[in-house]
Amino acid sequence: MYPFKKILVGLNLGPRDETVLKYTGMFARMFEAEEVTFITVITTPEVPQTVGDEFPEIMEQDREPTEDKLNEAVAAHFEAPEGTRVNCEVHHGDRLKTILQSVREKDLDLVIVGKKRESEASGLLPEKLARKVPCSALLLSGEPQVKFGSILVAMDFSKHSVDALETALAIAQAYEIQKLDCLHVYEVPSGYSRTGKSYDDFAAIMERNARKECEKFFDRIDTRGIEINHIFELNSRPSKSISEIAEERDSDLLVVGARGRSVGAAIFMGSVTERLFRLTERPVLAVKKKGECLGLFDALIDVL
To answer: Number of structural domains, the chain?
Structure first.
């Protein structure tokens, strides 16, 4: 489990910020954060450098009232742990690039952002941020209740699942949650018919294999006395299955290990996690191993 000591929170100074700020307070207290930075970005039309140098007031006209609003929101809804440094920053420019640059400069452990409902304006910016930052990300969508009572961990028994489970166990322990739901979604391979077995026969084989893998996986995990409720689901669309199980069990938090299929795995999440962001209204914590592939991350910022 990677402790979240340095946290960055993207705010848009809208009605959903209260939820984001309250979740930030919970995570900051839980992991005894050393530093929390709140950032909002004022988007402005592109101004040539020479014009900006000659008329700097163009870039400063909205800064003061925005700083006031940011400070007021943080003071009203964020309860800082004792000893935690709190920073409030206002920037001009492109939101995605500005926040990604802040991530690089501040050596962050966790980024927290809110996402609007699908029926509202596009929520692509938070998804892009969560996908590309080289650290863990908490994406808050819809209007979640600010509480931890039931946690669902989606796992494929890889090293990424170890990180996700360790983080979920730490959260459960902090909030005295006695049980974790651990979900594994399996599917029948398309070539099953060439084995001479029926679909149902091969589904049973895949489930038996998943249960064996699960047993081996948990043999090396200290569950800290927390009961594990194992859930095995047959579904060719893992993200849909995770979302549906979270609804059925009324999960307060979904924890997944961010996983990619390339050298950029620590930056670009796997397709399952990205689809899950779009499908669920519940908070999703994507746990990444901090700092992997930083060279690729630097290259990514340079081309934005």
So the answer is: 1
- DSSP-derived secondary structure for 161-175: HHHHHHHHHHHHHHT
Q: Is residue 274 domain-resident?
A: yes
Alpha helices for the chain (secondary structure H): 17-30, 49-54, 57-60, 63-77, 95-106, 124-132, 159-174, 199-219, 238-248, 271-279, 294-303
Question: For residues 32 and 156, is the Cβ–Cβ distance under 8 A?
Answer: no
pLDDT tens digits, one per residue of 6-28: 999 999 888 889 999 999 999 99
Give the CATH number of the domain where residue 181 resides: 3.40.50.12370
Residue labelled with tokens 């980024």: 111
Pick from 193, 180, 258, 192: which is nearest to 224 by CA? 180
C-alpha dihedral, 131 to 134 to 135 to 141, nearest 10°: -20
Q: Is residue 1 part of a domain?
A: no
